[in-house]
Model the fold of this input.
Amino acid sequence: MPSSAVPQKIDYSTLDVEQIGEMVKNARMAKGYTQKELSDLAGINLRSLQRIENANVKPRSYTLKQLEHFLTFEIAESSSVVPKRQPKSSNLKKVILSLGSAILSIIIAAAFLAQSATFPETTFEFLILIGAFVAFYMLLLLRIWR
Done:
């Protein structure tokens, strides 16, 4: 970027994909880069750059940051393009729920087996019980980690 050029700060949260694509394309052409040259310089996939310029996708914040190094625009700090990450505590909650539900499932299965004097009569019935609890637990994990 030439020292005389002052980059304009843009809040991408106010722009739609067409405006962003047009802005990236115009800035690239003003610098005289081909799509291939810019994708190589910025370290992004050529197809990603093409999709941005054709307004097929709204670029991620990381991609825009890579492009801003070689084009004459800057991402405004208030941009909402940055994906919101879940706090680490939510993963901790998921781990606790996963482990707690495993322990609870084992206790329930043991209580069921202790209550019945005749169940399971065969190894097959016991394996079916284990399979049912494993299936239930897997569905529960899918629900927790979704």
User: Anything to note?
Assistant: The mean pLDDT is 81. The longest strand covers residues 8-10.
